[in-house]
Amino acid sequence: MAVISASKVQEEEETTPEHIGASEAADGGPGRAPRGRWSRRRSGAIAGALALVCATVAYGVYGSSGGGDSGDDPPARAVPTVGVTYEVTGEGPAEITFRPAGGTAPATVVRDAALPWRTSVRLPAGTPPTVSIVLGERGTTATCTVTVGGEHVQRAVAMGSYGRTTCGGEGAAAGR
């Protein structure tokens, strides 16, 4: 690609061959566009060429810095997780609903769970742990507890016919 300096362009615009008469010089000569139009066309062509060069350089710099779309997906970032243990103790069967591992899937429901019941999952840091219990018609007693990173977070009791309760806590911090 050729680069034309601005001084060369200006020099060519101001130079008129000696053999062209005054009337031909004013309109650009025979077979030539008038000088004003020629100047605008040349300026537009140069501006377009410079814009193309700048865009090409910018694309090259941006693409080589890894900012461009190379067609590859960016590597997945590791999300810090925290160990959570849900536990339900008591008498009789219960329906248990809890936030599963990963924390983004729909709640997991365990119907007619035999007590005592316990499970451990890993939740993304900041995701609140939750476990709920619903007792059956017989109306016994059951207790739910939530432990995050080995630390007790909450405990609640459900009693009576179709008794229910929920245990939860704040979003767990990373590193626990």
Outline of this structure?
This protein is 26% helix and 32% strand.
Strand coverage percent:
25-35%
Q: Tell me, what's the shape?
A: rod-shaped
Return Rg in Å: 39 Å
What would you call the structural class? alpha+beta
Helix content: 25-40%
Topology diagram in text:
Layout: H1 6-14, H2 22-27, H3 35-64, E1 81-90, E2 94-98, E3 108-113, E4 117-124, E5 130-135, E6 141-148, E7 151-159, E8 164-168
Explain what you see.
- By secondary structure, this protein is an alpha+beta fold.
- The chain has three helices and eight strands, in the order αααββββββββ.
- It has helices spanning 6-14, 22-27, 35-64, and strands at residues 81-90, 94-98, 108-113, 117-124, 130-135, 141-148, 151-159, 164-168.
- The strands form two sheets. The protein has a four-stranded antiparallel sheet with strand order 4-1-6-7, with no helix packed on it. A four-stranded antiparallel sheet has the order 3-2-5-8, with no helix packed on it.
- A hairpin with a 2-residue loop joins strand 6 (141-148) and strand 7 (151-159).
- It is rod-shaped.
- Mean pLDDT is 75; it is low at 1-25.
